[in-house]
Design brief:
Radius of gyration of chain A: 40 Å
Largest sheet of chain B: 5 strands, parallel
Shape of chain B: globular
Helix content of chain B: 40-55%
Number of strands of chain B: 7
Oligomer: heterodimer
Radius of gyration of chain B: 17 Å
Strand content of chain A: 5-15%
Order of helices and strands of chain B: EHEHEEEHEHEHHHHHH
Strand order of the largest sheet of chain B: 2-1-3-6-7
């Protein structure tokens, strides 16, 4: 699959090739053909010089250049407009310009290739070859009409036909080949860049997982060791609460590196899910306002109070997130009680709590420095 | 379409396609010791519910997701504005409690929003308050009202705490006066009521919103000049 940037590189090279063809087309028309027309005018007068053909070819060249430079010429409309006129010009020039087919002033046959090249620039090679075949056929017909079919004339015609088409075909093929090579080069560069980014991302994920592993060790492993040593009794409510908190933290750590648009809500979902597995009815409300991307330490400081409360919850909890201005407030209301007030684990996060009639309300709020951080 | 002269039970029309929910609502209404609410019509669709006596009920309780086995379920959020424009007091009763949906139906002219999963204990109180055009706000509604209108800091805080699930008394403890003393629960109710009135004034100019604003002025919650877009009803 070609990426957009690789396609742009190919288009750039293609455009450069097109400019080269246009410059050669007008250069040939002005430097090589125009002096012939002018000198013919001086010798045979205006009618016998092909001046009208020169003007028509120049106009057609201008139209072709304008259309193709603006990205057009992909349909058959432009070739169908230009090519027949070019061939008719060859026929009229051969029949009207004095001196016969090989006369000094019969220039159209050898000039048509450049105009066809520009008009067919966005088309396929077989169509350009078809034009040169048609041009050759018209030339042969004109030789027959002018009774110039002797062997010498035919040999000379073949030479002129080949020499007036091979350069155009070479530029066409060369231009397309260079553009395609440039595209492949750009694609290879992009693939390399993607591989580097993937490597960096993999390194970052690995580093984050290593940090997670250390955190898990700090919460779960210590608990398991104390349980194994018989220092904690699983029948004790406090121990069960510690286990519930450790398990919920574990669930949060596992989803911290997930690539989701709203990581905070994603982690709260994991916490709620862990609590629901213990039979607690958790009502996790959709966030109010737009929750920005927050660093993992801020997210942990915001979700940790929720985890603590869920660990102590008896039957039900309601979790809400409100993003307003530069503040994010994560709150939980539950039928829970905590033995000690909770402390914030981040400088920019404030934890407040209140209890009333068996219900505990805890709010962790983070205040950003400015709206631009949101 | 009801009146504010309610020396009788508040009549409601229930638009609900799940029999189990209808039975649940019947039991909550029957469980009210003061018998303040009377169900006069039940329909699986808005059209069915509003045929006959359902059209004259004080309040229409509308589930946002309706359907049949044949057609499948369909969200009827867009019908709220139509019902409000016809002069009905609409209470939305739904599981779709996402703040943006709540805000959308409130902007469309719904009088209140009830979370089907968690606010059954507020059902009767909400219906009665809406029938009396009182500025009543449920916790699920509070999330939708937080954005969409310019609120004072206190109104914002009160709504936020209500959305979080705190009682008026708990909110009062959180909101302290200049001298450090907590405000009263009545003051909290006023903050929430003012926020509700601002929302009504800022959005659809329907009959129920005007009635709500008139009641807020009557009880001294807001002054007429505070309502920038206020126009007497009918125009």
């Amino acid at each position: 699959m070609t990426s957009q940037s690789a396609a742009r590189v190919e288009e750039g090279y293609d455009h450069a090739g097109l400019w080269a063809a246009i410059i050669v087309m007008f250069g040939w028309q002005v430097i090589a053909v125009l002096p012939t027309v002018v000198s013919g005018w001086r010798v045979h007068g205006l009618v016998g010089t092909g001046a009208e053909i020169w003007l028509i070819y120049t106009a057609l060249g201008g139209v072709s250049a304008w259309v193709t430079l603006h990205g057009g010429g992909r349909s058959l409309a432009l070739p169908l407009l230009v090519c027949p006129v070019l061939l008719v010009g060859v026929a009229i020039g051969s029949l009207t310009i004095p001196g016969g087919f090989f006369g000094v002033y019969n220039w159209p046959f050898t000039a048509t290739g450049w105009f066809a090249l520009v008009a067919l620039w966005r088309r396929r090679l077989p169509e350009l070859l078809a034009f040169f075949a048609a041009n050759t056929l018209v030339g042969v017909a004109m030789l027959a009409a002018l009774h110039e079919t002797d062997r010498l004339s035919l040999a000379r015609f073949i030479t002129e036909a080949v020499s007036s088409s091979v350069l155009e075909i070479t530029i066409f093929v060369g231009g397309k080949t260079v553009a395609a090579m440039a595209r492949r080069g750009a694609e290879a560069e992009e693939a390399l860049a993607r591989a580097r980014i993937a490597r960096l991302a993999a390194d970052a994920v690995q580093a984050a997982r290593r940090v997670n592993y250390e955190s898990i060790k700090g919460t779960v492993a210590q608990l398991l060791e104390r349980l194994a040593a018989g220092e904690l009794d699983i029948a004790e409510p406090v121990t069960r609460q510690h286990v519930a908190v450790a398990v919920t933290r574990l669930r949060r750590y596992l989803v911290e590196t997930d690539e989701v648009p709203d990581q905070l809500s994603h982690e709260l979902h994991a916490c709620a899910d862990a609590a629901e597995r213990r039979g607690i009815a958790v009502d996790l409300m959709a966030p109010v306002g737009s929750v920005p991307q927050l660093p993992v330490d801020v997210r942990r400081a915001l979700t940790d109070p929720v985890i603590q409360v869920l660990g102590a919850t008896a039957t039900r909890a309601r979790i809400t997130v409100v993003a307003a201005g530069t503040q994010i407030a994560v709150a939980v209301v539950a039928d829970a009680s905590l033995q000690a007030p909770m402390q914030a684990t981040h400088d920019a996060v404030q934890v407040t709590q209140d209890a009333e009639g068996g219900l505990l309300w805890v709010q962790a709020s983070w205040t950003g420095r400015s709206p631009s951080r949101l | 379409m009801g009146s504010s002269q309610l020396d009788r039970p508040v009549s409601i029309t229930l638009v609900e396609d799940q029999d189990v929910v209808v039975e649940g609502v019947r039991s909550w209404v029957a469980g009210d010791p003061e018998n303040r609410v009377l169900i006069v019509a039940v329909g699986r669709s808005i059209k069915a519910a509003l045929q006959g006596p359902g059209r004259d009920a004080d309040v229409i309780v509308l589930d946002l997701e309706l359907g049949t086995r044949e057609t499948g379920s369909e969200m009827v959020t867009h019908r709220v504005a139509e019902l409000a424009a016809e002069g009905f007091r609409v209470v939305v009763f739904s599981v779709h409690v996402e703040p943006l949906i709540v805000q959308a139906v409130m902007k469309a002219g719904a009088c209140a929003f009830l979370d089907k999963r968690t606010e059954r204990d507020r059902f009767v109180d909400t219906i009665v308050a809406v029938a009396h055009d009182q500025p009543f706000v449920t916790p699920s509604m509070a999330g939708g009202l937080l954005h969409g209108v310019q609120l004072s800091k206190r109104e914002q805080e009160a709504l936020q705490h209500l959305f979080q699930g705190m009682s008026h008394a708990s909110i009062a403890r959180r909101l302290t006066k200049v001298n450090g003393e907590p405000v009263s629960a009545v003051t909290v109710k006023d903050y929430i009521g003012r926020a509700r009135a601002k929302f009504a004034a800022a959005h659809v100019p329907c009959k129920s919103n005007y009635a709500l604003l008139a009641r807020c002025i009557e009880i001294g919650l807001i002054r007429p000049e505070e309502i920038e877009d206020y126009h007497p009803w009918p125009p």
